Inverse folding.
């Protein structure tokens, strides 16, 4: 059990990293989440620091464990919650703000689109194009682009031709995502249910849940309202570590290996101030990237764009 006494005992042992790791893994095995464990340890931080005879190794061990709980370390060193494969309920989804619901519906449909293309892209190109457009329609409206409604005649006709098939559920998920832009609160739930009828494996169910939890946390943290736009970039990549083995490969969205960030400097900023701002920005991006992908970013080069020294004309 994770108490001040057990944590102190672990840290004062001759193997503080191993003993504290055992405590954390026991907590995870009991059903507690990394977030809960982190909160418990942080609540004890002041008393832990005041522990008599606390060594530098013990302090480092505690810091490393806290980093591993928040994901601020290599992916293979992170503590991870057991996958939650319980998809959100209709009531849970209805609690999201309007555009967050639409974004979630679009995300669910986006996850399963490749299933249709892998089976029918050559024989049903018009249907494939229409369901892609339907998902983009939902994504763009959720991001506040507010494009007008479209019609999907071929896709709707296909629904009548292939009831009860995997392909039908993919098409239904896409069209229902588009409908969620103007539909009732429950429409996003139905889009998710169609998508989960296509992808029933635990990896997919956990991904649907992870997307929902991510949206829910952001909505609470940033005080979203029904007017807050939610573009698809909010979610990050569909499969940061690649799609599940049973799933068709995603070939039309190659992963980026580099990112160029341009920023304006503060007025009358010194070169050192600009460098500090760039490093702070990089650190923020790095923390986000680790949290989403479990991999650190590398800062290869940055340039402080101060006025150049131009030699006087001869």
């Amino acid at each position: 059990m994770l108490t001040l006494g057990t944590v102190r005992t672990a840290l004062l042992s001759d193997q503080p990293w191993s003993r504290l790791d055992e405590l954390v893994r026991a907590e995870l095995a009991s059903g507690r989440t990394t977030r809960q464990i982190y909160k418990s340890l942080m609540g004890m931080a002041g008393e832990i620091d005041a522990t008599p005879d606390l060594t530098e190794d013990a302090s480092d061990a505690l810091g490393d464990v806290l980093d591993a709980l928040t994901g601020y370390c290599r992916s293979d060193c992170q503590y991870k919650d057991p996958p939650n494969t319980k998809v959100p309920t209709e009531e849970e989804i209805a609690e999201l703000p309007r555009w967050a619901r639409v974004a979630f519906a679009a995300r669910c449909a986006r996850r399963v689109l490749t299933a249709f293309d892998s089976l029918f892209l050559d024989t049903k190109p018009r249907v494939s194009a229409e369901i892609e457009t339907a998902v983009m329609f939902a994504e763009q409206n959720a991001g506040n682009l507010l494009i007008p409604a479209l019609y999907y005649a071929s896709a709707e006709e296909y629904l009548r031709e292939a009831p009860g098939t995997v392909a039908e559920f993919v098409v239904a998920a896409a069209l229902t995502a588009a409908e969620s832009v103007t539909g009732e609160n429950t429409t996003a739930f139905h889009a998710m249910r169609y998508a989960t009828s296509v992808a029933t494996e635990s990896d997919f169910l956990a991904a649907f849940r992870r997307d929902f939890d991510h949206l829910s946390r952001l909505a609470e943290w940033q005080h979203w309202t029904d007017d807050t736009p939610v573009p698809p970039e909010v979610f990050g990549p569909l499969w940061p570590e690649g799609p599940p083995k049973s799933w068709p490969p995603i070939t039309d969205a190659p992963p980026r290996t580099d990112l160029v960030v341009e920023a304006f400097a503060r007025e009358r900023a010194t070169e050192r101030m600009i460098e500090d701002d760039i490093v702070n920005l990089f650190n923020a991006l790095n923390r986000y990237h680790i949290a989403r992908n479990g991999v650190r970013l590398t800062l290869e080069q940055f340039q402080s764009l101060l006025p150049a020294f131009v030699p006087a004309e001869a």
Notes: The mean pLDDT is 84. The radius of gyration is 24 Å. The longest helix spans residues 98-120. The chain has three domains: 4-77, 90-234, 256-314.
